[in-house]
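Bench log, entry 3. Co-assembly request; chain sequences pasted below exactly as received.
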Amino acid sequence: MAEPVGDKGEVPQPESTSHPTTSDAKPTTEAVASPSNTPAKRNAFTELMAPKPKAPISQAPQSMASKASQIVRGVWRGALIEYIEHPERFPDKVLRVTANTVLIKDAFPKATIHLLLLPRSPAHYLLHPHTAFADPAFLAMMREEAAVGARLAAAELARRLGSFSASNRARDEAMGKGKGGGAASDRDGSESELPLPAGRDYAAEIRVGTHAHPSMAHLHVHIISRDMRSERARHRKHYNSFTTPFFVPLADYPLGEDDVRRETGFQNANLKRELVCWRCGKEFGNRFAELKRHLEEEFEAWKKE
Amino acid sequence: MAEPVGDKGEVPQPESTSHPTTSDAKPTTEAVASPSNTPAKRNAFTELMAPKPKAPISQAPQSMASKASQIVRGVWRGALIEYIEHPERFPDKVLRVTANTVLIKDAFPKATIHLLLLPRSPAHYLLHPHTAFADPAFLAMMREEAAVGARLAAAELARRLGSFSASNRARDEAMGKGKGGGAASDRDGSESELPLPAGRDYAAEIRVGTHAHPSMAHLHVHIISRDMRSERARHRKHYNSFTTPFFVPLADYPLGEDDVRRETGFQNANLKRELVCWRCGKEFGNRFAELKRHLEEEFEAWKKE
DNA sequence: TATTCCGATAGTGAC
DNA sequence: GTCACTATCGGAATGAG
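Structure output for the full assembly:
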């Protein structure tokens, strides 16, 4: 989960001067940072920046939302508010800012790609995801933004895995690119006269959804690659929270009133349940370290697909 | 618990050539090592060496005992056989050798002083202590040797703590020794004309007994100082095995047939029970590390008594 | 279901 | 009730002018 870092000296300003809908930040549609410090070159992330501005989705009364916000300010549960209110302070973390959302890199990524989409609406950002996504307009907006985030994630995944991908290499060779270097983009290919191999569908390796019981107070949607290979994935719960029904795909919202995934007992059992490889289904009981080693092997095979 | 060390290249000889009662070792009454590498100087340990030889206590049939011995040879449970059969190989560990016993320093001492007394009789050394000490002659022999070991232990404790002991300092000053250096001996004092302060009773700080369920196969009697201060005391069981009725004083043998200390359930509970400071009775629940820190403080007070 | 630190608990293998 | 190694499990604190 992302947390603000490297801003020890800065104290969050009182809510009266820093509300996002009356923000003191720069224009909200600005791309704050390119992900890889590659200057002006073509880049999967930068290509998708600067979408059309839209009106903020909520104009809920400031006083009420701010009061709730105040409760979690300055404690770990409320750390995400810093990105929501001051995205410009985190150029290394923030990938995209709109009037309604902030897209960041998770500070403790649990997979090769792990982004968080944060809504900026005070009327929504402290709601439980099950509640917030009962609002159709809000859900639609978040889905739209999550789709953008997922494309960014897929493009970045392509950049990272492209040189290893068998299906992409076939495509690259058909295009006369040769073996070296990653394929920076796998989108379209319509300029070619001959039918090209489709190339790897990196988007299919990206999953978008929430945790059934988030610990961070502010609503966040995970945009994460499937591999679950990360140094920061250190506990059974880390793994199970993404590989069991504890992870609720954004596509599944709004949840039915009787959806079993609302039940705390069910979800606690999901977090505690025995470990299973997401890719091959092999069971690892409580042997997390062994699963980790196995995931390294699976990663090698997965990235070559 | 002591184990042979530094003899990786040496394979235990077949029992037929190395039986202690038909030993190939040097004369069994020889003092193998002085404890502190102090050359020929007067020393608490060396003073008590070289007791009168006695006849070995057992002449049990070799074949039977050797068969049993063979079972635990070469595995960790049988490691003590090396000291019994080849005490001369461990000059740094062995303090005293007689026809009937070997006295060694525990390789993993659980207190400032921690010795083991090992009987050499194959008819006894694989028996459970409760069984072995039902033999009055064997018990008498072991008590006699344990008393020697306890005196050695007390003398060594005096050497280590003497300079910190308030009661000993009073005595030393009455004898005109001044403050510096440890008192090498606190025994008698009868040469003086004036009544001297008694000096600290170090023997009272030494406890002698067995574990109710030993893990090492060969019978061993612990001779250990009360402090339980040691880097090698690392587990709850280490501590409880010496500070609960799991520790059976040699003086309590032979145990009555209905002695509760024979009961496995009782003893397992002793090993698992909550931690209590042996000196002040303070309770530490399962907080072993906290107990360890507390024992450091108790040690400072205890050594100054 | 935030992380991090510390420490208790559990299983194994060892000649 | 042997040790030593690895790992799992469990609680507590957590920022900061």
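The radius of gyration of chain B is 20 Å. Strands of chain B lie at 94-97, 101-105, 114-119, 206-211, 221-225, 247-249, 275-276, 283-285.
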